[in-house]
Amino acid sequence: MIDKCPRCNVKVDSNLSNCPLCGSYIEREEQTDIVKDGINYGYPKVGKSLVVREIAFRVVLYACLISIGISFLVNFLAANEIFWAYHVLFGWGIFWCTIGRSLFFHLDMRKQIFWYSVFASVICYYIQTMIYGTFEVTEAQNWALVWATPAFLLGGIAVLFVYMLIEYKDWVRLAMPLTAMCLVTAIPAIISGAMYKQVHFMIYICLAVGVITLLMLMILGREKYFLELKKKFFL
Description:
Number of helices: 8
Largest sheet: 2 strands, antiparallel
Number of strands: 6
Strand content: 5-15%
Order of helices and strands: EEEEEEHHHHHHHH
Helix content: 55-70%
Oligomer: single chain
Shape: flat
Structural class: mainly alpha
Distance between the termini: 27 Å
């Protein structure tokens, strides 16, 4: 039996639980066959866990939309100078991009590590902006860029690299999120150079680790690594 991935439409063998291309979880339904007069009257039997997750997803989604709507309405009617409703919107956005994705969409662990590292940095920027009241701060005040973001990115690279060593027989599946993490290490350096005309040593360390890891993937992975890149970009 061969199914298709609902996300990238790639054929997936029945013994696999995740799509080999994008890593999405493949939800399968049990089929109850009732054949009469050559016609199949059977209905798919949906698992209990799927039903519970679908109900929980709708409850959380409705709670999200209602709470955001009420917050903006109350904030608008109160006519406060501080528009606190944006905090509710930001909180729900982070929830859906991190915990919500894991709970309701069964993302593979390799992708969760990448997104958790990225959005942890986003949260630090948000907290920093709330503390100083502005996005433009001095380099000494910009702890989110200088310390937090490189630390989260280095942690993500380390976790993915260790995970790759443990699952060395299936290392190719971890190569793409690790590649994405290495490429993201260039963003703090670009932002720091544009804002302050200089780059902090912590950002240099983060960028160096990303470049070295990427070169190791290219040199050690060779044909398998570049073939996975072609599959990822449908080349």
